[in-house]
Write a structure and sequence with these properties.
The complex is a heterodimer of chains A (231) and B (143). Chain A has 231 residues and is α/β, with parallel strands linked by helices. Chain A has seven helices and nine strands; from the N terminus they run βαβαββααβαβαββαβ. Chain A is globular. Chain B is built from four helices and five strands, in the order βααααββββ. Chain B is α+β, with helices and mostly antiparallel strands and 143 residues long. Chain B has a domain of 93 residues: Hotdog Thioesterase (Thiol Ester Dehydrase, Chain A), CATH 3.10.129. Classes of the chains: A alpha/beta (231), B alpha+beta (143). Chains A and B meet through α1 of A and α3, β3, β4 and β5 of B.
Chain lengths: 231, 143
């Protein structure tokens, strides 16, 4: 049975979000018709909390909550799925200069997978780093659809995927409750646990899905050039 | 006062309710006047050429003005209900430039019945649908 997961979200545990996990789940429940998600993955910035437990909320809302992390590397931001004690001991997630190649290889060796996120974003995305550094080895998938991307960023991600043959994921990168689930990933297989998710990301079939509402065209005004002369 | 729908009491606040969108054309003169009134008389807020000398693409809107516009969106929604904004916070993701049409929008995302309060997501979009400024506000209603 296919599974749809938002693979990239931030709750109030991240310093730049005020979204409670329960508010995310309630929002999805209320908007199920437009957001047919089976679950979300919390990818808090630069941290891993093994003790946070969302089982009661999962039961209450019948929506899966999995945990991962978003870390910062010398090739930009990356999502780490399948974090375990070995991985958490091996890497300091608070380090904003983690060595990407080492992270990818070591996380894979220890049972997880690293997925570079918003690769088309300036400064923090893989695309720009590849312009001046060698491509990374052993990258399996990158985030093709990011709900927080500016115009052109997701297109650059697609270009990267086409060039290197990466698999493609989607995630909302939500920091606000009302943005959860707008981009997600549809897996062909049943995904019920983080182990399932890691297995499917490595070997399974999946694709990004876009639930962003179509917005009406807004008339673009022509900017008027102005220069102020001070006397 | 805008034409936005207003809320009359906490009991009618619904999670998922939209606030806006409200579209407005933000002129350079409006941004310039705001900057001057706030003592932000820097070229980046008043003059395209001066802004470019600072490495910017042209005049930009002061962050406090964006915050003010989102605050007004919420106070227009509050209307005469007697509610008040107890907290509002914004994140600046993309430069807001004047001489463009912007859209202000919000959603009620959470309620706290015991406190008679609600949480609201807010943002300012440009013509391309990019969320330039995002934020949240907490609104409390009288008992």
């Amino acid at each position: 049975m296919p599974t749809i997961l938002d693979l990239h979200s931030h709750s109030e545990a991240s310093e730049d979000s005020r979204a409670p996990v329960e508010a995310y789940l309630n929002w999805i429940k209320l908007r199920r018709q437009h957001l047919p998600l089976d679950g979300i993955v919390l990818t808090e910035h630069r941290q891993w909390n093994p003790d946070s437990d969302y089982r009661a909320l999962e039961d209450k809302y019948q929506i899966m909550v999995l945990k991962a992390a978003e870390v910062e590397t010398d090739y930009g931001h990356m999502l780490v799925f399948g974090v375990n004690d070995d991985i958490a001991s091996r890497f300091d997630f608070a380090n904003v200069y983690l060595p990407a190649q080492e992270l990818i290889d070591e996380v894979a060796r220890m049972g997880g997978i690293v997925v570079p996120c918003h690769p088309g974003r300036p400064n923090v995305g893989l695309f720009e780093h590849y312009q001046r550094k060698p491509a990374l080895d052993n990258v399996i998938a990158v985030e093709r659809l990011n709900g927080g991307s500016r115009k052109g960023e997701n297109e650059r991600s697609a270009e990267l995927i086409a060039k290197f043959g990466y698999k493609a994921t989607g995630g909302s990168d939500s920091h606000l409750v009302s943005l959860i689930g707008l981009c997600a990933t549809r897996f062909e297989a049943d995904v019920k646990t983080i182990e399932d998710l890691v297995r499917e990301l490595k070997t399974g079939n999946y694709e990004p899905v876009d639930f962003r509402p179509k917005r009406p065209q807004v008339r673009r005004a022509e900017p008027v050039e102005e220069s102020e002369h001070r006397g | 006062m805008s034409n936005l729908a207003t809320i009359d009491k906490f009991e009618n606040v619904q999670i998922g309710a939209a606030i806006g969108p409200e579209q407005m054309f933000l002129s350079k003169e409006q941004a310039r006047r705001y900057a001057r009134a706030c003592g932000l008389d820097a070229p980046r807020f008043t003059d395209d050429e001066g802004a470019r000398k600072e490495g910017l693409p042209g005049m930009i809107v002061p962050g406090n003005m964006s915050l003010g516009l989102l605050t007004k969106l919420v106070t227009d929604w509050i209307g005469q209900s007697g509610a008040r904004i107890v907290r509002i916070g914004t994140t600046y993701r993309v430069l807001v430039q004047p001489d463009h049409t912007i859209s202000l929008q919000g959603f009620v995302t959470h309620t706290y019945p015991e406190e008679r309060a609600c949480e609201i997501d807010l943002w300012i979009e440009n013509e391309d649908g990019e969320r330039m400024v995002t934020g949240t506000a907490t609104v409390q209603f009288p008992r």
